[in-house]
Amino acid sequence: MLAQDLMTRSPVCVTTRTRLKDAIETMFAIDVRHIPVLEDERLVGMLSERDLRPLWDLALDSAVTDGRVYDRRVTDLMSSNPLTVDSEADADEVIELLLEHRIGAVPVVDADGMLVGIVSYVDVLKAAIGRL
After folding, report:
1. Is 93 helix (H, G, I), strand (E, B) or coil?
2. Domain tally, the chain
């Protein structure tokens, strides 16, 4: 099995200009924990729930009441230069990346570095149904 067999094709993305508030709303709306960040249609980062943890601490701080923190751009918290695989990567390679780097998703890019999909741990588990 290959990454292209597992991946979610054409995933919803945000751009480097997207405000955190909008990215969080998008993530909740489509029920994902990871969202690719694009600049000029090229993958430049990933924003995950883990990256957003500092916001939760700020939100719980009674001194932060005006919400300006959510007006920051996703580039302030995203993970830059994400690990990627190509669509022909073996599923085992994808799983090893997820486990070794303790990440929940890996973007799939073409030879030009353009995002074509994303493989999350959920995609891997769906593929495993009935095979274990």
Report:
1. helix
2. 1
Q: Which residues pair with 2 in a beta bridge?
A: 90
The 85-86 sheet, strands edge to edge: 8-9, 115-120, 105-109, 85-86
C-beta atoms surrounding 35 within 10 Å: 25
The tens place of each residue's pLDDT in the chain, 132 residues long, gives 999 999 999 999 999 999 999 999 999 999 999 999 999 989 999 999 999 887 776 555 545 555 677 788 999 999 999 999 999 999 999 999 999 999 999 999 998 889 999 999 999 999 999 887
Q: How many residues does the chain have?
A: 132
Residues of the domain holding 37: 3-128
